[in-house]
Design a protein that fits this description.
homodimer; 199 residues; alpha/beta; 11 strands
Chain lengths: 199, 199
Amino acid sequence: MELLQEKIKQNGKVLSENVLKVDSFLNHQVDPILMQAIGDEFADRFRDCGITKVLTLESSGIAPSMMTALNLGVPFVFARKRKSLTLVNDLITSEVYSFTKQETNTIAISKEFIGPSDRVLIIDDFLANGEAALGLLDLVQKAEAEAVGVGIVIEKSFQDGGKKLRNQGIQVESLAQIRSLQAGRVQFLEEVQHETTTA
Amino acid sequence: MELLQEKIKQNGKVLSENVLKVDSFLNHQVDPILMQAIGDEFADRFRDCGITKVLTLESSGIAPSMMTALNLGVPFVFARKRKSLTLVNDLITSEVYSFTKQETNTIAISKEFIGPSDRVLIIDDFLANGEAALGLLDLVQKAEAEAVGVGIVIEKSFQDGGKKLRNQGIQVESLAQIRSLQAGRVQFLEEVQHETTTA
């Protein structure tokens, strides 16, 4: 997705060989026009899959999920990272380890909102080691719903989350695939493929 | 806002005289078409105020803020409830006590995204005791920006958050104002005013 790649090149900050900071347009300050374009793109890629629910994890997955769900005409559910007082009964839970925060969170959804008749599209902002996406997938499976696909805004293709998901036969659509963050520079997978083709 | 009141009547669950559960359409599962209508309504009410940023608090404020910001053509920022490893420098912070969760959280925004030239619209899902809105207001003031107004999806008018904000001269726009949750029933302020008028 060209608009997203441009935004990453212009406004993303490479903090290390593993960390890309995109908090000026995706996960702290949010560019709503970009989110609309992202939602339209996810909706197009999964349009014919009979999606009944979009599922994401608070908080950075909410804006792209909002726009995807609006376009597809279905509700979305955001999994909570821990229990609140008004959300204690009939929960489905999973454990997710965050390498960034170096902590394990319980993520939870209410049984009320995802069930056996649902065809679920999982959306998240980043895919790195796959912990969050696998946790969401676990929630969908425990709910006896069908996980139709996974939509990722930015995939760090040099980490193995994408491989783990694709090896399970799941359709993973990543709008930007980052091959490396070496030497302070963002290199996209598409660029490399293009360079190879035209070399 | 009639659409919202109907949704609350049909799908809201009164758990006690203080607690209204709206997790089927606002703060766990989210109805994107309702969020679009909410965003349009907030944008209309604050259209001529020269808003440059929308500010909210993760997570339930994100969907209505997304739609408001999209309509107004400005970015939105969601304050984080605690620090993450990629968000540690140049933070503006405030303390917010949650009566629901009975805990105090530090909320934070990056100085990079809200500054002295900004005219900020604060958006949140609920207004009860006003702790969250006052915390967001504190962030705006510490950033030396101007808080133009506060947009609330559901105000519990029988608690004093709205009064605290309005006493400071801030324009507060609440799309549904709940007068009471007594006897397991949601009574809106507008209904009471209407009943009084027509009595």
